[in-house]
Amino acid sequence: MSQARLSPGIVPGRLTAEELAANFADVAPPLDRHEAQVAADRCYFCHDAPCITACPTAIDIPLFIRQIATGTPDAAAMTIFHANILGGMCARVCPTETLCEGACVRMESEGDPVRIGALQRHATDGLMAQGGHPFRRAAPTGKRIAVVGAGPAGLSCAHRLAAKGHEVVVFDRRDKPGGLNEYGIASYKTVNGFAQAEVDWLMAIGGITIETGKALGRDLTLQALQDRFDAVFLGIGLGAVNALRAEGEDYRNVRDAIDFIAELRQAEDRSALPIGRDVVVIGGGMTAVDAAVQARLLGAENVTMVYRRDRAQMGASQHEQDHAASKGVRIITGAAPVAVIGNDGAAEAVQFAYTAVSDGQVHLTGNGFRLKADQVFKAIGQRLGGPPDRLQLTKTGKIAVTASGRTSIAGVWAGGDCAAGGDDLTVTAVAEGRDAAEDIDAHLTGRTPEIPG
After folding, report:
1. What is the dihedral of CA 287, 293, 299, 300, to 10 degrees?
2. Residue 232 CA: distances (Å) to CA of 47, 97, 227, 436
């Protein structure tokens, strides 16, 4: 964004390079060998482990923790990767407190679960650091599959198909592969270029080609892909951001939070990134938290998140809410924006109305308040932008799919955020890409699908 067009309160360099480096350091540093052994020894190794059921990719968690406990972390990594090829990233970004760790028996009895996410990172990082790739491709099948979208769903699907001997071409609209993992996650959760390192590691299996700068509907058509390939998988994510539907949201210092996060992730020099003094983030999900926290880490003095329902209904987990609060982010619930107040094309404040919920619907009340804001970030959800013709959509505007990812068009599968079903999480997208790949392989070869869980 041009510096000349920014509000006077939005400036770069609010913090020193040393302060920024400390603020954006790894939020959850890896365990060393001794720490991993101690953490692994706390596992009960449950036979009917609830943590497995809580994991969307159904990793055999007791098995991989036992493998760490017995001094074979590489075997633990293979147990993880067989179920979740992006287990390294998921160890960093999964809301484990609501998934595997939330279901841990020790959580039930002691309020202190086994550190499953940290143990998963310990195992996967160790194996990935050795170089090479632990999986080998099956004999070539002569089949070619197009994967549109190089995010978690697309990469998971591509790897599973390549492992089975198929040739895969992955198309992505951006300059880099990775999707959400590269562009949409807070920098302090995935440091040192891990997202691209993970893509490079995954690609080492062979049989996968990635073509960037290729968008469906602009450079590619679904029909052309069907004509060229034996099957098509769509992992195109959600390309459009919901509107506030409030007066003044087109002011130049009102931005989509996802764009702010992407800009920060790609920045070579964070001290050059402009940030406001008084920042308001509208929304209550993970994107809202990531934007709000990073605004504070860049040096914003006052950062406020405002969500229209109560805290229990926020998309961000309690852990993420607590993290935001620990960084000085103020969270206001039960309020919605009605207007952005500005002058000379720039926002100066946001007017909110308190809300009431009746029959599950949010209604504005006659009472409200105003927050000073020289920068406003919208994080109120995304929607599917320009889906291909002929595809059946659900009432929520996502691509309708079966449990195995089949769409209404024969030979076309879909998964991840663009498809109906499941939470909008990296780990869910990985599971859906993997399961679709198994179904595609079964459809093309007649082999029996191999799905964990």
Report:
1. 70
2. 38, 35, 10, 10
Residue 258 sits in the same domain as residue 336: yes
Question: Residue 398: which CATH number?
Answer: 3.50.50.60
User: In 3D, which of 328, 341, 254 has the Cα closest to residue 289?
Assistant: 328
pLDDT in tens, 208-229: 999 999 999 999 999 999 999 9
Question: What's the pLDDT tens digit per position in 431-452?
Answer: 999 999 999 999 999 989 887 6
Structural domain containing residue 307? 243-382
**Residue 276, helix vs strand vs coil:** coil
Q: Beta strands 335-343 and 346-358: pairing type?
A: antiparallel
Do 375 and 394 reside in the same domain of the chain?
A: no
Binned at pLDDT 50, 70 and 90, residue 6 comes out as low
Indicate whether 158 and 234 sit together in one domain. Answer: yes
3-class secondary structure, 37: helix
What's the pTM? 0.95
- One domain, residues 329 and 403: no
Q: Write out the DSSP string of 210-225.
A: EEES--BTTTB-HHHH
Task: Give yes or no: residues 111 and 160 share one domain.
Answer: no
Q: Which residues are within 8 A (CB) of 299 and not within 5 positions of it... i.e. 6 or more apart?
A: 14, 15, 19, 275
For residue range 189-204, what is the model confidence (pLDDT) as tens digits? 999 999 999 999 999 9
Token pair 């080492």 is found at 204
Q: What is the Cα 52 distance to its own chain's centre? A: 21
Q: How many domains does the chain have?
A: 3
